[in-house]
Amino acid sequence: MTVKPKKHLGQHFLKDESICLNIANALTNHGCYKEIIEVGPGTGALTKFIVENKRFKTTVVEVDRESVIYLNSNFEGLEVLEEDFLHMDFSRFKSEKLAVIGNFPYNISSQILFKVLEEKDRVTEVVGMLQKEVAERIAEPPGTKRYGILSVLLQAFYDIEYLFTVNEDVFDPPPKVKSGVIRLIRNDVKKLPCDEKDFKRVVKMAFNQRRKTLRNSLKQLLGDVDTSATIFKERPEQLGVEQFIELTKRIFG
């Protein structure tokens, strides 16, 4: 058996097997995918429960060389990719539908989900553990301070559920904050009824000045647009996905 890798790169390894099992069991096979991609498996605490389900092909993506060596030595037949998930070319995967799962590194968890958005036509389900505050923000409905850019962009294409909270003491080393596990299920939206790039631009610009009304925060986009409608008097956290779509169409036609 290969010696377990040293803990570095900001990794916090799960040591409670019951938590690992609960995360693995949170996958529902929505979209009837055949392949699961685990991001940042570390020493395989979660991996060993994922690979037990023989219906799926499991591929793990890990940037840490020591962890890659350990995984290859301890999981026979497991496909281990030593590369950065954020820059991965998804065309390498043969399955039309995929799931993504993982104990996501805190510092890149939002970027991982933005990558999922880029591949939303193939990724039908995501189960991820993130910093609790970030997990709650993603699942948050409109009307609160936690609701933000990632909430809107992900909720446009995924139904999101906050599953459970994970305490600090189940990690080695323990992080300074609690974690939260969320599940994203691809919804029926194939394409937004507005230009997606314009939609993202409106959402990001609105929340970058979230204390202002939309009439003021989006001023540089508005030009000759009639801003007398009530929607322009709102602040961004008051708008759901449908309202942001309406707003985008009002601005860009």
Q: What is the CATH H-level superfamily of the largest domain? A: Vaccinia Virus protein VP39
Mean pLDDT: 94
Assembly state here? single chain
As a percent range, the share of helical residues equals 25-40%
Order of helices and strands: EHEHEHEEHEHHEEEHHHH
Determine the strand fraction and express it as a percent band.
15-25%
Report the biggest beta sheet as strand number plus sense, adding barrel if it closes.
7 strands, mixed
Shape: elongated
Top keywords for this entry?
alpha/beta; 9 strands; seven-stranded mixed sheet; 253 residues; 2 domains; Helicase, Ruva Protein, domain 3; Rossmann fold; two-stranded antiparallel ribbon
Please provide a written account of the structure.
The chain is α/β, with parallel strands linked by helices and 253 residues long. It folds into two domains: 13-186, Rossmann fold (3-Layer(aba) Sandwich), CATH 3.40.50.150; 196-252, Helicase, Ruva Protein, domain 3 (Orthogonal Bundle). It is built from ten helices and nine strands. The strands form two sheets. A seven-stranded mixed β-sheet has the order 4-3-2-5-6-9-7, with helices on both faces. The longest helix has 13 residues, at 196-208. The radius of gyration is 20 Å and the shape is elongated. It starts with 12 loop residues before the first strand and ends with a helix. The mean pLDDT is 94.
